[in-house]
Structures are given as structure tokens and as C-alpha cells.
Specification:
Blueprint (H helix, E strand, L loop, with lengths): L2 H23 L4 H5 L9 H19 L28 H20 L9 E5 L6 E5 H25 L10 H9 L1
Antiparallel strand pairs: 1-2
Helix pairs in contact: 1-4, 1-5, 3-4, 3-5
Length: 180
């Protein structure tokens, strides 16, 4: 398996995990979604929106927009801050937006080439406005490792919120599911 196929596999896993997270939270109350935790972005909801927003802004960077921002976010703050107007209105809205973002990711990844992995991708740091370049391969790997890190935080919050059936988030579980 070459590098492009490995990256595509990591993104397939990321999308599967996102779906599992959304299924796990669909029956939570608004209070449970917004209950404060001393981890992640401070609540299940804020952490999920941050996860979505990080995927959004990095895809924008990969596509050449070094100042991509999620509608509803204020510039200069962490992705998913939703402190502006026109943002994500709730679970139902996020449930509609995430598949569209995933479709854009799939479209991008089908065109990914091995030669492009060493190209620089530019992004402005939201807090300082400094523009920096990072190898495309590192950006792609970062999105997946960031997603796994944030997912672990969300699963921990779900556990503390009393969710009995926690979402499966392990790559090996996806592989075993596909093998059956």
C-alpha cells in the first residue's frame, strides 16, 4: 500500500468515527451536550463543533484557502468557536453539514497524488495571523491525529455523562467490521 492509499484509509476511518460519534450523541439532551467538562473544548458539543471546524479549515487550506473559517466562527480564535453569526444551530444542523464536508474530503482525496504530498500547504495561524507552510502529507496526517485526540476526549466526556454504549472508534474495529 502506498502513502496515498494509507492516507485515504486514515480518512475512511475518520469518517467512520465521525458517524459513530454522531450516532452516540443523537439521544443526548441539550443539557448533556452542553454540560461542562474540564477536558477538550469544555463540553461534548463544543468539542464536536471543534472537530468539524478543524476538518473544515484544513480542507480549505489544502484547497488553497489559507484563511478558511467555518461560518459562525470569529477570526483569531480556535476553529469551532461559533462566537459569530450564521453558525451551526444545533445537532440537526451539524448532522446535515458534516456529510457535505465529508463529500468534499472524498472528492479531494480521490485526486490526491504521491507527488503532491511534498508540496507546501499554507495556513494563517488564527491567533497571530502569521502565515506558515507545512508539507501536505503532514497536514493530512495532522487532521487524522487531531481527530483521534479530540475523539478520545469526546468519548471520555460521554463516559462521564453516563452514556452506556460508547461509540467504537478503533481502526481495528473498522477493519474487523469490513472483514465480516
Amino acid at each position: 500500500m502506498d502513502a496515498v492509499n494509507l492516507i485515504q484509509r486514515l480518512y475512511q476511518h475518520r469518517a467512520w468515527v465521525n458517524g459513530n460519534l454522531m450516532t452516540a450523541i443523537q439521544d443526548l439532551s441539550v443539557e448533556q451536550l452542553h454540560s461542562p467538562f474540564q477536558i477538550g473544548q469544555g463540553s461534548i458539543w463544543k468539542s464536536l463543533v471543534h472537530l468539524y471546524a478543524a476538518e473544515y479549515v484544513w480542507l480549505e487550506a489544502l484547497l488553497g484557502n489559507d484563511e478558511g473559517i467555518v461560518p459562525g466562527d470569529l477570526p483569531g480564535k480556535i476553529p469551532g468557536n461559533q462566537l459569530g453569526e450564521g453558525g451551526i444551530t444545533g445537532f440537526g444542523d451539524l448532522r446535515l453539514k458534516w456529510p457535505e464536508l465529508e463529500r468534499r474530503w472524498v472528492e479531494y482525496l480521490t485526486k490526491l497524488t504521491a507527488a503532491s504530498l511534498d508540496e507546501l500547504v499554507y495556513r494563517k495561524i488564527s491567533s497571530s495571523g502569521v502565515r506558515f507552510g507545512t508539507r501536505r502529507s503532514d497536514v493530512l496526517l495532522h487532521v487524522c491525529t487531531h481527530a483521534q485526540y479530540t475523539t478520545a476526549q469526546v468519548v471520555n466526556m460521554l463516559r462521564h455523562a453516563g452514556v452506556e454504549k460508547l461509540p467504537d472508534v478503533m481502526l481495528i474495529s473498522l477493519a474487523r467490521l469490513e472483514a465480516t
